[in-house]
């Protein structure tokens, strides 16, 4: 059982200009809609990868939309040198055989630099452009170090959305995000392009609780109901009646989502945000932030003598963006930096000067976000539960959900604190499945005693070691840096609402629709954790 | 500049008009003669060219148009709060259904109340106060997710038909859980926006006895989905006509193959070749 992800050439055929998730989501029909999301119509990798796609634009004349310069000819075949491949290879054409894109440096100056091109970063970019009052009012640059998204948490996630949290802020974020996804074409539809199809499976989440935790589940249920989530509690008999394939011996209570819960395709959401944001003028830059220049500014107040304490706050003046595979860099002067770097947020925060002060002061507290590796296994079980399989989360922490219609399922679990795998790479540990996931699965669903693992992958959680909840807001000392990170596994499902919240903070000065001030950085300085009990 | 040409290219792809706009860039001569001026085109082609150059304006007008249309649908599906407050939830639901040209039948009555084609209806339904609705027929109306909220308190709804409704999608089906105890018959045929993910939401309707899901254009593998649904809802009779269950997978592959050949070299006989190939499989 080797950990196999979809081969690169397969990916190239289905997903033009970038990888899909490790699974080919759905059938070839989906691949085609994925194929229209070209990685920026302003010059992605063109070339032979595009030729074979099912781009149903009837492109008979050999020039795909990726050819910069937009040359196209009358009547195709008769041209000297021919259209298509021959012209591309001859010198002077814009396409490069080895796809060495010229290093596209980011602009010298931008208003807002969003570091991190995952779903949270692009969501913030979209909402900033959505809320600007004047066309072209805000110049936004999104910096992403890996355009293939090989280590990004967004595309490697299982793609679920739920409202069954214990914190009201999280519940409201999920509800707002579900509202957004319901009307996604009103928000992210681009004229002249295909509508967005998230392939949302409305199958709900099912949380199982043992005797010990049943009272916590009941408290959570009332919080969820008050916040507006449509959840229902099920006793073991009701559970058995609803799901006859489930083993309910040691289950005391179950919580089942009726609406707005399920799973969807994260790659489609990411591309929808990106396509819409770029159509509104957000600049995408491929590079890594390696440094920044800051200056300290002390608050100048009228009563100078009162505030003698050194209240030096830092301001980021510019960030240095280094091009991939080269030493070339560009300092981008910016007014605001948004840290949406996910699992790598701490590294970025250190570059921007957070956590480097003396211990015991506010300046010495680092961003408590670190990458944690999580495995996802795909297995096939022909006798498994059918179309009504929810996203089942056992009380032992093991989860599984249906994938497609062919008897495939996705499973995973969070390891214990002591057994966290190392995060140097994304290699999959298959022993973990055999020891920690399969036994609880087989105990829970009898049919899973016979299963075959077909594929597996690993991804990072941007794990907030402090309290496993997102950090949204400004840093008190660096006063032009905003955080939108640390979601510990539920960043994807909160991304539309978080993007809107950060855009409100930046452009309106305060939260307008959802009050997320409890999730700010202040709680880390004050050491007041807002624990989320329902972390999967 | 390249963005401008990109937009030009994008718009021109859809039209049969392809123009020589830029010189081929691979000529190596440094001093080349200026291109000859293009011939004066007929009026409709000049109009199209003008429109492609005003791409952003055309995009804005199109988005205005679709926004207006959406706003019209939202207005029709608004929450009938005033009626709800003064007449109760049943009359509000009845009024809503009649306003968007649907039909309904009260519990215990045998005649239906409907609006005619022009949207006019009689006000007799006001006589039956506090009578819940038993059967609702919303076929070919613009009911959507928010509109379904007007029917929220109808706990004795037995039959619902949303046949041919363009705004009914998977989220609408997910919201039907509010009728999970009472709903017995559901007709969702000919709805273009329903896909497999939404049908998974019907798992909550354990009382469902008859389901009609014929001719759903958004379904990719209808035969398999019908079997899975029958397993999921064992007491439900499912009607699923209007699907082509025969060899649809192979025909799709044939289509992709011919498209690839078509990319590599335009062949005027491709259409006849495809037809010939498909007939050999019949």
UniProtKB/TrEMBL annotation, chain A:
It comes from Scophthalmus maximus. Residues 1-90 are annotated as: Disordered. The gene is foxred1. It is found in: Mitochondrion inner membrane. This is FAD-dependent oxidoreductase domain-containing protein 1. InterPro entries: FAD-dep_OxRdtase, FAD/NAD-bd_sf. It is a single-pass membrane protein. Residues 15-34, 60-84 have a biased composition (Gly residues). Residues 1-13 have a biased composition (Basic and acidic residues). Pfam families: DAO. The keyword Oxidoreductase applies. Required for the assembly of the mitochondrial membrane respiratory chain NADH dehydrogenase (Complex I). Involved in mid-late stages of complex I assembly. The keyword Transport applies. GO terms for molecular function: oxidoreductase activity. Residues 111-505 form the FAD dependent oxidoreductase domain. Coiled coil: none annotated. Its cofactor is FAD. Keywords: Electron transport, FAD, Flavoprotein, Membrane, Mitochondrion, Mitochondrion inner membrane, Oxidoreductase, Respiratory chain, Transmembrane, Transmembrane helix, Transport. GO terms for cellular component: mitochondrial inner membrane. GO terms for biological process: mitochondrial respiratory chain complex I assembly.
